[in-house]
Fold this sequence. Notes:
Elements: H1 11-28, E1 62-68, E2 72-80, E3 94-98, E4 101-105
Parallel strand pairs: 2-3
Antiparallel strand pairs: 1-2, 3-4
Amino acid sequence: MAAIPPHGLNLPIQSFLNQRFVCTLKLLFPETNQTLARELKCLRLKQFPRVGGDRRNISNGERKVCFSPGEGFVTTSVYDRYHLRAGERVPGPAIVEKLDSTILIHPNYQA
């Protein structure tokens, strides 16, 4: 985890965060005194994977899955959700696994 530099955040970032906070505060609590002093306690940043590289084989393997009893088992690609990028399309049939959930994408669909 990276720390905020000792000299703090630059003024445009401070101003932006303060403005967003006040707007949200007014929406949620219109009767609140917005002139009270504010202190930034926690700032969460999200890191995205780098763009580029070979994306042809991002599957974690395959499993046989029965989507319909009439069609039987279909070979299905398995993906790790944490290795997919925002906006990336996964063609069905596929399974997207995450620590706390599993997404099943039927044949001829995409997610």
